[in-house]
Amino acid sequence: MQIPYELALGWRYTRAGRTTRRNGFISFISGVSMLGIALGVAALIIVLSVMNGFQKDVRDRMLSVVSHIEIFAPLGAALPDPALTLAEAKKNPNVIGAAPFVSAQALLARGEDMKGALVRGIDPALEGAVTDLAATNEKTLNLLVPGEFRVVLGGELARALGVRVGDAVTLIAPAGQVTPAGVVPRLKQMTVAGTFDSGHYEYDSALVLLHHEDAQRIFRLEGPTGVRLKLKDLHQAREVAQELARSLSGQLLIRDWTQQNRTWFAAVQLEKRMMFIILTLIVAVAAFNLVSTLVMTVTDKRADIAILRTLGASPKSIMGIFVVQGAMVGVIGTLVGLLLGLGIAFNIDVIVPAIERALNASFLPKDIYLISKMPSEPQSSDIVPIAVISLVLAFVATLYPSWRASRVNPAEALRYE
Description:
By secondary structure, the chain is α+β, with helices and mostly antiparallel strands. It is built from 17 helices and 9 strands. It has a 6-stranded mixed beta barrel. Helix 1 crosses helix 14, helix 2 packs across helix 14 (315-346) and helix 12 packs parallel to helix 16. The longest helix has 43 residues, at 21-63. The protein is elongated, with a radius of gyration of 33 Å. The chain crosses the membrane at residues 25-51, 276-298, 318-348, 383-403.
């Protein structure tokens, strides 16, 4: 099969250029452009992979406490028919687990210390089907027996109150009892059955778990206030929530996990988008260095262009030769950047500890950060756009110098040759 001469000449010009000082300088600029594209692509892949890793780690810790979807009654009231709601929710093929719960706010006191708390009444037998926290703390949650009024506290909350397993704490419900002396808050002494640490400070410092029947008695509810669901695919939570809104009976509110932490996820997406834009500028600068490289190449190859034109080459063919030359630099730089970026991203758990040992330093101290290891999760949804943008920028950078080459007048170019 005959290779088009435009492709052959473009590839030859990409490899050549070290015989003279001028050609050597052109080759050096071309190499710098190629290296810049490779480093820019690699930096984009590494940074976005690390951001994906941090996001996944924090999300997993969050979802160990928060269920994928919550169905609850308005104004914190009890569900009108919990059994019906559970049965209807389980009919959805995407739902793999369901459990009732009671959600309320209260104060938790021990001596003179008092902290605001998010009280969650659970069914220990079913909680493992909707959260990973229950699966990892099964023995502790099984101590929550109805009528015993025991609680399991977040580790940070227990440390803030200075309580240990077996200590007594007082739960103060917001709605008080009306007496001749006025409104008296409802107090209930509870026994600490255990603690948990999810790795997410917001929940470890405020969450109180108890049996849902005990919670119903304390807050004077006739039943659970909602149902928690676990899905096959957590990324389909919004779609499943919309399906449940159409299929469930009664006036119920539905909230998925992305809505519960909307501000955090919005901030992460914005930060990731801005990092993508900023680091893409590195690739853009390197790609547009090709403009100066090709302009210098066109000037150096004016005689060659004139000879090709006299032999019958069309302006379109001349333009194609230099487009191929610039595109080759972009393709090689992009491929090298992909290999370098993916190599580091997939082995960052080995590379970072090696650098820490060499420098005798810790980038993520355990006593400061919740995540002490550098996570990484390369995703094709990030890598493919990076490669496409790099190639497009390199191609666009070749258009103007290639067009200038196609406009070279053979007679003028050969006048002084």
